[in-house]
Write a structure and sequence with these properties.
It is a single chain. The protein has 3 domains: 274 residues, HUPs (Rossmann fold, 3-Layer(aba) Sandwich), CATH 3.40.50; 139 residues, Cysteine-tRNA ligase, C-terminal anti-codon recognition domain (Four Helix Bundle (Hemerythrin (Met), subunit A)), CATH 1.20.120.1910; 47 residues. It is elongated and about 90 Å long. Helix content is 42%, strand content 16%. By secondary structure, the protein is an alpha/beta fold. It contains 16 helices and 15 strands. α2 packs across α3 and α15 packs antiparallel against α16.
């Protein structure tokens, strides 16, 4: 069997065949760093992480790139025209009384911290739009030389009609070809066609922006779409294997990426596989700042949840289906994660890790098949639990499998297992022995005081039929 994944470009599941044998190029549309990343966006980055981990698990060498949008993403994107409105970073700068550069730095750092908290594997490159201005200018120049641009009073635009007249298809993944002026898109009298989009925007003549650059066309800044084409092709080539993002990018951003990239290079397809994660619902409805439910990792941590609880929650749903977030479902995910850690802590590890094969090979094969079946993580998670509860396996066999499976899950089971196996300090052991004696004599009150003291030192007591044992405390 081989990896099968849903391709938004062809609207069907397909067998993954990389352009270069044994090697895969993977690009993810990252955050616009004007505020904290919402949990809906984090679901997209978990999807990319799972694809990255799965490709590596299956033996591919992966060139992985995530962009960081720190200029050019306008607020008009919310109403259907990403070429109108304010730059999101400039708007945030006014609100927080900082510069756009300070806003970008602060929220980029917060994103990277959250990235690590969720145990996402770092890509080969985090590429910032502002670090690649010349690359974007060069790409626009290529598109211009091929006759697919025109100039208006506010910028340089991509000509979708000219693109189609050259024998290309525009908007395969969306209904952009059906967009009418005055519907979702604000009427722009200088646009030749309502589907056309800005490659370069001119700075306002009456004020200086925090972020603006010289270009062959005038002082300004790049449009939102051009950055992803420029940076993905810089690091992955004119054609690469997989491009991921949230399903909100299906309508305009990704179709525009395809059009401008193929217009510049003349090569088709720009990307072989487009993989999109479904929306995250909150309490059965949409998520939004105006609704007060656009939660971020800080909101979860303030309520006592670990980002890894959120990661576990994401694993319970298929990436191509909507998932409903509630505080109850997050609580359930937390309890399941801690239970899994508890089971790991109870397993004994013997000598010869990595040498087990016979009885566990069928389980590895079954787990791999769930990954190859369009990343069926809920089923993979079920296999993990069956493994943890299997009474026929030794502790060593279970650990071998669970640590291997966690290469995909990313729940830190092996790291936790190493912590569990560390030597318990002698003073803690003596306290535990004293507690056992108190329990045998019926002094439950003093025994409970000692239990609390042991817990305050980072350990926990687990009572058994033949006494008790001390383990490091499971962190929530």
């Amino acid at each position: 069997m081989a990896l099968k994944i849903y391709n938004s470009l062809t609207k069907k599941e397909e067998i993954f065949k990389p352009i270069k044998p044994g090697r895969a190029g993977l690009y993810t549309c990252g955050p616009t760093v004007y505020s904290y990343v919402q949990i809906g966006n984090w679901r997209t980055y978990i999807l990319s992480d799972l694809i990255f981990r799965t490709l590596e698990y299956l033996g591919y060498k992966v060139d992985y790139v995530i962009n960081i949008t720190d200029v050019g993403h306008l607020t008009g994107d919310n109403s259907g025209d990403a070429d109108t409105g304010e730059d999101r970073l400039e708007k945030a700068a006014k609100k927080e009384r900082k510069t756009a550069w300070q806003i970008a730095e602060f929220y980029t750092n917060d994103f990277l911290e959250g990235f690590d908290k969720l145990n996402l594997k770092r890509p080969k490159v985090f590429s910032k739009a502002t670090d690649h201005i010349q690359d974007q200018i060069d790409l626009i120049s290529k598109i211009e030389k091929r006759g697919f641009t025109y100039k208006t009073s506010d910028g340089i635009y991509f000509d979708t009609v000219a693109f189609e007249k050259a024998g290309n298809v525009y908007g395969q993944m969306s209904s952009l070809d059906q967009i009418k002026e005055g519907a979702r898109v604000e009427r722009n009298l200088e646009k030749r066609n309502p589907r056309d989009f800005a490659l370069w925007k001119f700075s306002p003549k009456d004020k200086k922006r925090d972020m603006e650059w010289d270009s062959p066309w005038g002082v300004g800044f790049p449009g939102w779409h051009i950055e992803c084409s420029a940076m993905s092709m810089k690091y992955l080539g004119d054609q690469f294997d997989i491009h991921t993002g949230g399903e909100d990018l299906l309508s305009t951003h990704h179709p525009n990426e395809i059009a401008q990239s193929e217009a510049a290079t003349g090569k088709k397809p720009f990307v072989k596989f487009w993989v999109h994660g479904a929306f995250l619902l909150v309490d059965g409805g949409r998520m939004g700042k105006s609704l007060g439910n656009a939660y971020n990792l800080h909101d979860l941590e303030e309520k006592g949840y670990s980002p890894l609880d959120l990661r576990y929650f994401y694993l319970t749903g298929h990436y191509h289906k909507q998932l409903n977030f509630t505080w109850e479902t997050l609580k359930s995910a937390k309890e399941s994660r801690l239970k899994l850690l508890s089971l790991v802590s109870e397993l004994e590890s013997g000598e010869g890790r990595g040498k087990i094969a016979g009885r566990t090979s069928a389980w590895r094969e079954s787990f791999t098949q769930t990954l190859e079946d369009n990343l069926n993580l809920p089923q993979a998670l079920a296999i993990v639990w069956e493994t943890a509860r299997n009474k026929d396996f030794s502790g060593e066999e279970k650990l071998e499998l669970l640590f291997d499976f966690d290469r995909i899950l990313g729940l830190g089971l092996e790291t936790f297992g190493r912590i569990q196996n560390k030597e318990v300090p002698v003073p803690i052991k003596k306290l535990a022995e004293k507690r056992d004696r108190l329990r045998k004599s019926g002094d439950w009150h003093q025994a409970d005081i000692i239990r609390k003291e042991i817990e305050s030192r980072g350990f926990r007591i687990e009572d058994c039929s033949d006494g008790s044992r001390v383990l490091p405390k499971i962190s929530s």
